[in-house]
Amino acid sequence: MSRAARLRDVQTKATTRLADQVRHLRERGVEPINLATARPDFDTPWAIKEATREAIAEPHTYVVYSESRGLIELREAIAAKLRYENGIEVDPGEQLLITAGTHEALSVALQALLDPGDEVVLVDPSWVAYQGMVRLAGGVPTFTTLRAGRLDEDDLRAAITPRTKAILVNNPNNPTGTVLTRQELEGLARVAQEHDLLVITDEIYEHFLYDGRQHVSLATLPGMAERTLTINGVSKAYAMTGWRVGYAAGPSWWIEAMLLVHQHFISAPCTFAQKGAVAAFTVAKDAYAEMVAAYTRRRAALAAGLTSLGLQVTPPEGACFYFPRFPGGLSSQELSDLFLERAGLMLTPGSAFGPSGEGHLRLSFASLPESQVPEVVRRMENVMDELAASRMEGKGKERA
Question: How far apart are CA 82 and CA 104, in angstroms?
Fold first, then answer.
């Protein structure tokens, strides 16, 4: 008995591994502080819950599957959102697919696109699930590394090979918080068009922007609508992570190919959750503003705390993460384990996000109340002091 060979190079998600460790800690009576996940600690807006409650009260809503593409009223609401907020024009009948979260949208997009051995260029570092998704689709992940936090056009061009089929980019970036400028996106567009590549752009954090920054959707640039798949959903901006509603918008041929895979994966998304998502894009479409205001305060508080520990940090331009490098020579996995065991802090190892993440840890402030920041800093300081003392002791033994 053996499992499929395609699983050989697919690793367990780092956040899943952390969840297993936390379960063991809780069995010992320890409740850790969660800095590992990007799950908002806000409640889903009432208007969304009310729309869902009303949908559940209608017998046909939960008895009948929706169309595999998703409810037409949701697709129309998303098409309107893309038009007015992003400047993207799509036909809700042929160019939109509703999925079970953005995770499924990304997976289905790759399954529908890749043949064995096709390469997908990922921005390094980037979300932990991308590499596994590419490999499960038979593809090979390759990397272009952010240079001082920025996407360099020449570096991206150098990552292209004859086997490259697509580029996958997360904007704003998870874990660095980088928000790509129009100039950076124009460089990406030039590379994609020069090499006739497709681009998947994951824009799930589009509303989490700081210091007056503006989000630019790649599909709006000249020549990119026909080669760009835009992925988004309701999980972050509307605190609907458990509702599992995402979407893909792009060329009709790609959506049709995805639909074929999607039908065999899940058939159709949850109908009443889609009803709630309609409310998110209509009556509650600005509800994320309160969340962004809170994240802005948390971002500032964490910047001060991390700087006081001697860590060099640049406040993220978007999303809800810090991604500092830690001194001392320990691997990021060792650091993650140490902070969890010694301080009860859940921090995601940077190596999970790509080769350049080694030595870093990702700190999410999505579910970190501002009032808890001093306690987090205190616990981190204790562990870092312990590490510094251990290094000094080691140096002393070397001199002896």
Answer: 20
